Amino acid sequence: MDATSAPHRIPAEMPQYGEANNIFELMQNMLEQLLIHQPQDPISFMINHLRRNNDHVPKIIILGPPASGKTTIAMWLGKHLNTNLLTRGSLIGREFSSAAAEARKHYKRFKKVPDSLLIQLVQERLREEDCIRRGWILDGIPETREQVLMMQTLGFAPRHVIVLNAPDSVLIERNLGKRIDPVTREIYHTTFDWPPESEVQNRLVEPEGISEVETAGKLLEYHRNIIRILPAYPKILKAISADQPCVDVFYQALTYVQTNRRSNAPFTPRVLLCGPMGSGKSLQASLLAQKYGLVNVCCGQLLKEAVEDQSKLGELIKSFFEKEKTVPDDVVMKVLKERLDQHDCVQRGWVLHGFPRDQDQAHMLASLGYSPNRVFFLNVPLDSILERLTLRRVDPVTGERYHLMYKPPPTLEIQARLLQNPKDSEERVRLQTDLFYRNSMELEQFYKQAITLNGDQDPYTVFEYIESGIINPLPKKVL
């Protein structure tokens, strides 16, 4: 829409609904599936696609050299995410599949399966209902560039690709100790992961092809292929070192696959900054407004501006100011609503600070339809807050602001006439800080997707964390 020739007034509820329900991604995914499958009846296809509601099921590829632990990680992920694990062995061993029977014959004779036949097996399996409904993890597939291209042609696109890396010397040593449980297919190691049960120990067998020479040959072939595979997944690839405890590898992989990809959807930031006085909310808000063109909405400043306007509402607010009483929430909301409803806030987005301060105010804000899509809590310890605020001073002659530690006055004459704002007294600061932290737990529970940051560091470092939280999708909670 061209706002210069036609300043369309788009209701705030429209973009909020689109973001809350992922409408852009929904339409994008549906269009992709239409183009890939090219159904005879597009309408019925789209209806079935929407009914499945499977746009966010796991679609993961795990790659890595022999003995990197990719099968173990894939199995753990499969159990944790309740999804289907697809391995070369499980695909070839499928019953009631003519392609699998042909693959077994070919493997028995040549010790390998042709690329086209393996991808045909993948295609058959991924089109089954449980893979459509619960997603899938491909363990060690694709193995070659040719397999990648076949999968892309068939429209099978992963959401996340993980590649495990480790030095060849580590992998060869690790492979020599590998043992397999023929009953459960669990993989163990004579040094790193020996089962405690004697019954399991007794039935473990040494797999074929794990000698040092054989492993070195497989590693050479893997390195030749992997450099041609990885360029096919530039934006969804995560490399993880396999030369660390398996549990650490698993949690790094789990964190990655539970991270949403950055969306191409239009995004209007509605940012809420929460924190005690002196936590740097005003500075962070001004930095965000400056860099991203957001409207800086400071609740305290809005009340002062309302008083200066000398409106009826301003006169009411002024009476509370003069008596040094808190302005009632409903009055504050009237001023805030008037500002957030203005066209620049709806079109450009906003960064709000100074309100809400407790759960009741947060409920009031939400009930009127003002829901931030990013919430940040800036945590700063009391000692740092006292240092920041109680040492602030103002020169009554020039109006210049000083800080006795960070920006001391240049002369003794100026220092002698400096005044402290009553709000910066230690007693007042302690009281306000205690009040914030007493209410902050309920606020954090209300804003469940809030991101908590350490505000007791360089302000530009804090800004980088906030910026990252706005640009990137919100992470899923790791269980």
Describe this structure in words.
There is one protein chain. By secondary structure, the protein is of the alpha/beta class. It has helices at residues 13-20, 23-37, 42-52, 70-81, 88-92, 98-110, 115-126, 129-134, 145-154, 168-176, 198-203, 212-229, 246-257, 281-292, 299-308, 312-322, 329-340, 343-348, 359-367, 382-389, 412-417, 426-446, 459-471, and strands spanning 59-63, 84-86, 136-139, 160-165, 178-180, 187-189, 237-241, 270-274, 295-298, 350-353, 374-379, 392-394, 401-403, 451-454. The protein contains 23 helices and 14 strands. Strands 2-3-1-4-7 form a five-stranded parallel beta sheet, sandwiched between helices. A five-stranded parallel beta sheet has the order 9-10-8-11-14, with helices on both faces. Strands 5-6 form a two-stranded antiparallel sheet. A hairpin with a 6-residue loop joins strand 5 (178-180) and strand 6. Helix 4 (70-81) packs across helix 13 (246-257), helix 6 packs antiparallel against helix 7 and helix 14 (281-292) packs across helix 23.
Short description:
This protein is α/β, with parallel strands linked by helices. It contains 23 helices and 14 strands. It has a 5-stranded parallel β-sheet with strand order 2-3-1-4-7, with helices on both faces. A 5-stranded parallel β-sheet has the order 9-10-8-11-14, sandwiched between helices. The chain has a two-stranded antiparallel ribbon with strand order 5-6.
